[in-house]
Model the fold of this input.
Amino acid sequence: MKQNKILVLLLFLAFPGQQLFAQERYYRLPVTVRDTSGQSLIGVTVRVNAADNTSKTISGGSTDGEGHFEFRLPKGIYILSLTYIGFQPVSQRINVPSDGEFKLVMRSGGTGLQEVIVRGQSKTNPVKNLEMGVQSINLSTLRKMPALLGEVDVVRSVLSLPGVSSVGEGSSGFNVRGGNVDQNLVLMDGAPVFNTSHLFGLFSVFNPEVVQDVKLIKGGITPDYGGRLSSVMDIKLKSGSPDSLRGAGGIGSVSARLSAGFPILHNKGSVFIAARRTYADQFLKLSSDENLNSTVAYFQDFNGKVDYQLSTKDRISLAGYWGNDKLGLQKDFTIGYDNANAAATYLHEFSSGFSAKTTFLFSQYRSNLGVLQEPQSLLSKQYIRQYALKTDWHYRRNEAIDLTFGLSAIRYDVNPGVQTPLTESSVFNTTTSARQAGNELGFYLNNAHKFSKKLSAQYGIRFSYFGAVAAQNGPVYTYGGMPGKELLPVLTTEFKKGAAIKNYGNVEPRVSLRYLLSESASIKAGYNRMAQYVHLISATTASTPLDAWMISTNNIRPELADQFSLGYFMTKHSYELSAEAYYKTMSNQIDVINGTEPIGNQDVEKDLVYGKGRSYGLELYLKKNTGKLNGFASYTLSKTERQMNGVNNGDWYNAKYDRTHNLNLVVVYNYSNKWTFSSNYVYQTGVAATFPSGRSEFQGIIVPYNNGDLRNNYRYSPYSRLDLSATLFVRHRAGSRFSSNWVFSLYNVLNRKNVYALYFKQDNANPNKTIANQLSVIGSIIPGVTWNFNF
Done:
């Protein structure tokens, strides 16, 4: 009954405005914007001005993920104008009512580089949009920013935004507003990506040549997204050129990449393909050092996308990705992991204000560890697979009724680990973790409502259901015992394959409010409730690709989060300023007891502990958009804590990714049409870590230990890094479609040995002392050079 009342209230709020606007004689003016290659342009600023007074703006906004925008205007003559970073502005005289849809083309403004937009939550003016946290970095700027070994990386650029951090180089994923890496929903054309890293976090799985748009949502997450607590990174891939062959690529210090797009079937469809691979392993084979020439270290990935226009109202697309990593010494160990996903989408437009999209999705992540030395030889494998079917509907009638609603169904198949000996002499036996399966269902409803010129709101709700089912015939254990210690089975139940084990349901309301203080300033507030049914189990300070994925079971309850946020936004000339405060509480958080190793653990559920978390902070962001000297600064002051049953004596403690201060400065200086210089500086409080507070002696050996079971009782030294780069644009003959540039970079110019981990042991020179050995993933200046080209 309570859920029904909430739904009725939402519909009541959505539809009263219908009478208010129905009496106004307005006409629809749909607009579609693309570039010269046929790519939809997302986030183009669209304005309508009075024809007799071009300084007076009648209405405005920005194009959506399909390059569409729609005005509702009274009869008259207007000036329609388009502006977009890196493209020539467009202005056109229009007459309302008009005949059909306006399809406009924007031409590149010089460099020919496509734009990637990285946003906190929106594509448009940070003052006037309904959502909070707007930041943008276009691809031309991204290519000029300093990069590790010259390898441009979308995910690493996101780390420069407020509220986003990582444990450090060599750690997979990223952390948003105090959340773990698994609490980020990362989508590639709608398909989830369970591990975003290549080479243990040094690079991401997203080839910059294939990315069209990136949307990062930190708060105010709309109800069409579900399944994670902290953020959504929604990445849309490029489509092929509908009229001619076009390509791009690059050769860098680490890898080479190439992409191409071309039309098919009489220009009704297009194909886009891209590939990338490292070649460091090929050079290692040439070394005379036996350890080096037996080293395997590479990653590769492939992207493909096909689009086809069935009719003026029907489109289909197929997109796929596969990438893998391999690292190891051929005589000692091997580590491998890979991602694969696919998305098939059908879009139908019933009218200019009513459309439906149906998508089938597949995602898979696998990892393995092989130990080759005797007698410890073994092979450990694990995987998570997801199949999903979802449908999304959008209906816009007027400024009071802008509805989105939809359904989704997801099937999970998880194997947390299978460990097998490689030889008969191995000391290990075959162990298999209990396979898991589950079904997740979701329904959402959302409405964007303009109450007045100053006050607008976006409100909605998501209903989610999760059912854990038996993956095979056999027993299922319910564990109990003392928190913080290994649990014991207190109940054993036999289930047949496919039988329901445990069901969960959650109601997730979402709301965002915006009040305009003036044309250049606004305040916003929001509330989100999120539920998460998949979990990453990690026993280390920094998450690794070998950590185990699990789903909610009869022992593992869904994670829940409630987030409140308040922000102030201002634009002044070419400057943007935002200040956002947030407070987030989390329940059913998961950690492991001391000494737990998820890999090869037959039933890791007995080694888990549960509790709650909280995170709060202030995010500041200042950006200069134009001029020879531009860039942005972001600063985050935050606190992230956990309280787990049976851990740290039941007291609150700092989460492993808690950073009190996080400062990022990015400066770009466009010296001339030929040269651009840039710098990037990062300062962060050191991450929390558990240090020994005592030591004991056993047979003459001093063993450090943690006295009092304290968790994360110290911090590593602060993280600091300065990077520099220079971009040289090569001149080519006039009229040529070929363009290129060189990027020279220096990573870690200050030559700092930032701490990745500390290991404590007895000092051999003085057995009465305990010493700490520091591990730094990057401990020197790293130069890089990349040649980029487009044709």
About this structure: The CA atoms of residues 323 and 484 lie 38 Å apart.
